[in-house]
Amino acid sequence: MTKNENGSKGYLISIVMVAVLGGLLFGYDTAVISGAEKGLQAFFMNAEGFTYTDGWHGFTSSTALIGCIIGSAISGLCATRLGRKKSLIVAGLLFFVSALGSMEPEFIFFEHGKPTEGLIYMFNFYRVIGGIGVGLASAICPMYIGEVAPSNIRGMLVSWNQFAIIFGQLVVYFVNFYILGDHIQPLVEDMGKHFADITPNAQWTVETGWRYMFGSEAVPAGLFALLICFVPETPRYLVSVGQDQKALGILSKINGSSRAARILQDIRDTMVVKTEKLMTYGFICIFVGIMLSVFQQAVGINAVLYFGPRIFEEMGMEDPMLTPMQYQILMGVVNILFTLVAIFTVEKLGRKPLLICGSLGMAIGAIGAAATFGHNELLTVIFILLYTASFMFSWGPITWVLIAEIFPNTIRGGAVAIAVAFQWIFNFIVSSTFIPMFNMHLSEGDDFGHWFTYGLYGIICLLAALFVWKLVPETKGKTLEDMTAMWRNRNKKQ
Fold first, then answer.
1. Dihedral angle computed from the Cα positions of residues 241, 242, 244 and 249, in that order, rounded to the nearest 10 degrees
2. Helix 84-103 vs helix 117-148: angle between axes, to the nearest 10 degrees?
3. What is the DSSP letter of 186?
4. Sign of the torsion angle spanned by Cα atoms 193, 197, 199, 202
5. Number of H helices, E strands in the chain
6. In sequence order, which residues have a C-beta less than 8 Å from that of residue 324 and are 6 or more positions away?
7. H-helix or E-strand containing 82?
8. Rounded to an integer, what distance in angstroms lies between the CA atom of residue 451 and that of residue 183?
9. Across the 494 residues of the chain, what is the mean pLDDT of every consecutive 10-residue run?
10. Which of 123, 134, 287, 467 has its CA 20 to 30 A from that of 38?
């Protein structure tokens, strides 16, 4: 039998493309609420014996993030006990159940179309279930890709996961638009009215439209859960559970026979101790991973992604060329294009240069938006686009690359779980504080909240650049096994 000396790029690409479907579902699930929330609010404001307040709606709109925190927190345990592949299958099934349950929360226990307090709890339960799937996928998808990818293209392949997240968000914007069709979102005056009294063209949206938006996720979720069954487990995990021959077979298909043997030996060398404690390589190792996640959210990007239409509407543009939703779609297209910049430059330029340049670009964009908000609408739009574009070629994809590759093999599962959990915690903090900060006023009608919010994000961007410069190691071209030696040496010097 002829040995495969070069490996199969087609095989590698096929399993990576299946894995990044988890990233697409990550983006799809977190963004689907943007099109469904108004119809959902009008529906639940008809609940009998219960007042569905703005506070309740804010909580209902963000319950998926609570699930994300739970999912990411348990991802390390799942990745270690179940393996990377089985954990992703579980995530796919959770996505699927959440999609169908959010579409029809009345299933079995409640009367269809009759909003009640109990139905609100059931709907939120299904959204939390989906959030747990997102939390698992957000941690394990980049981990899976990082563990199967050759070191010379690992950064590029993991970056495709971020592309899939942004693409999933863009896809759901168009899906929601298609589902809405000729119908309209409920108006402010429709809120709290009986279904029969709601604006006729909005009745379908309130009774049915939001259901189809949530249910549409079942299609990619089912496809992901099915396809992930056909990809292999990662070689690093297989070695950790004593299945060296299976690991060698997969490494040979990806890297070629002779190189696979060398990689397998490197993995074995770092797997001698399988029960190393989380702090074995020093506090700084875990701290860097956590702060990468914290800064990725603290720079404020998700406030712009989640509340983009509201931001553009607040500008009060006279005779705008585009509607607020169209500006959001434009921003989504810009995000896609600049994520591609990261994909095709991360292996040439390295991780640190992209993070530092992105931080500085975001700082200029955020501070520029703060200075021009309410004074020059066109400049504000340009600065916001600069802000988001700078994030998309830097902190968006590169954080996931580093989290997937920066930790030693023996602690990767637990360390990634902690880092990603902090990411979702700060996502929730930023998302929940944006509107109160944005609407702050020192006097009647001033724009204090607008410039304060973006000014704060700009300062955090500068701190992020300083953090990367001082503490984050460059990992370009290094194997995952090199991380063990690097952190061990750094820990000895401290």
1. -50
2. 150
3. P
4. positive
5. 21, 0
6. 308, 309, 310, 312, 313
7. none
8. 36
9. 64 91 88 83 86 80 87 88 94 96 92 90 95 90 86 81 86 86 76 76 88 94 94 90 90 86 79 65 88 93 67 58 65 84 86 94 92 81 89 90 84 84 86 75 71 90 95 84 80 66
10. 134
Calculate the CA dihedral of residues 168, 44, 424, 214 and round it to 10 degrees: -20
Q: Which amino acid is at 98?
A: S
Provide the sign of the torsion angle of the four alpha carbons 375, 381, 384, 390, taken in this order. Answer: negative
The four Cα atoms 39, 219, 341, 309 give a dihedral, to 10 degrees, of 0
For residue 459, the tally of other CB atoms under 10 A from its CB is: 14
Instruction: Give pTM, 2 decimals.
Output: 0.78
Tokens of 322: 């585009």
The pair of structure tokens assigned to 210 is: 């939001």
Using CA of residue 71, residue 72, residue 76, residue 82, what is the dihedral sign?
A: positive
Longest dimension (CA), the chain: 81
Tokens of 37: 């929330």
User: φ and ψ at 129, to 5 degrees?
Assistant: -55, -45
Residue 319: what pLDDT? 47
User: What is the distance between the alpha carbons of residues 305 and 328, in angstroms, rounded to a whole number?
Assistant: 8
Provide the residue type at 11 as one letter: Y
Tokens coding 310 = 């509201």
> What whole-number distance in Å separates Cα of residue 346 and Cα of residue 369?
28
Structure tokens at 207: 């009774």
Q: How far is CA 340 from CA 256, 384, 392, 458, in A?
A: 28, 19, 9, 24
Sort 263 into a burial class: Cβ within 10 Å, 0-12 / 13-18 / 19+. buried
d(CA 285, CA 488): 10
Cβ 129 vs Cβ 101: under 8 Å: yes
CB within 8 A of 157, min separation 6: which ones? 12, 16, 145, 149
pLDDT at residue 317 in the model: 53
For tokens 């345990």, the residue is: 77
Q: Which two tokens stand for residue 144?
A: 């899976």
Collapsing DSSP states into helix, strand and coil, what is residue 170? helix
Specify the DSSP class assigned to residue 474.
P
CB atoms within 10 A of CB 432: 14
Gap between the Cα atoms of 84 and 471, Å rounded: 29
Alpha-carbon distance 58 to 431, whole Å? 10
